[in-house]
Amino acid sequence: MSTQLVRELPADRPYASTRARAISLLGPVTVVAGIVWAIVQPYRLTLLHPHGEGFWWLAIEPPLLVVFAGVVFAVFVARPLVADLEADATT
Amino acid sequence: MQPPSEMVHWFFGMGLLMLGLLMVAEAIVGREVWERRAWRAYLWPGLAFGLGIAMWPVMTFFTNSAIHMVAHGAWAQALMAMGAAELGLAKGKLKSRWWKLATPIGIAVSGAAFLAHEQNGWFFARSAFLHHLVGWTLLVASLFPLALVFRPRSIVLKAAFAMSVIALSVMLFSDRDLAAVFGHLSPLAGPPHR
Predict the structure, then answer these.
(1) pLDDT of B161 higher than 90
(2) A/B interface, count of CB pairs below 8 Å
(3) Annotated domain spans of chain B
(4) What's the CA gap between B113 and B68, in Å, rounded?
């Protein structure tokens, strides 16, 4: 059925939207994993107790590397990928 | 000014995490959508190639024995060959599907390198345990891209390959230079520093 008010959605739309949701969750889930790691093992975050630490121990914080990977993925990969999935579903 | 070797493992852990996320995303959306933007097809092969390049300074600055140097050097070459073959396939310059064999070979060589340059037993220290675990995981994980050569559209194989890469990144993030593993730490390893 298709009128000026109601339009039938393509059949593959729910599947595409499920995939889009999964893609858009990957980055945030990774960020949350990094944050949870930092809470569970705060001693892995040298920034919380920086006194007497050298350059590398202050620059490289493993939970923050996980958060960084999640943010980079979410911003630079997931966003355009979700846009492509949604464009694919509407055509 | 050289970072401790555990930090090198964490850097590579972040690289593998990115690689795993890209592979999971590709498995979810399928090859057609993934390659809708040309740059995306080069992402994970480019990252694999970059990790191979990054292995050369590791070979140069973190070599404390001949076997370390040989293992890191072979590993760097295998990763670069794997990334280069995948880049060639993505660009369309390489046509034969047999080039896909570079990936399982590269990963198997990485596993062999991990096992070869760990001279201590599993429970010597956490780093020894993780080197054994990562080595064997890489060897098992190399079976997934090998199977993908013959079943290139299998989502299960792609997902299994991606998850094994993410599992490897978790192992690398767990690495410490001198720490106990399951309560075991050889007295020969020295006192844990943190």
Answers:
(1) yes
(2) 65
(3) 1-38+122-131+152-194, 42-117
(4) 8
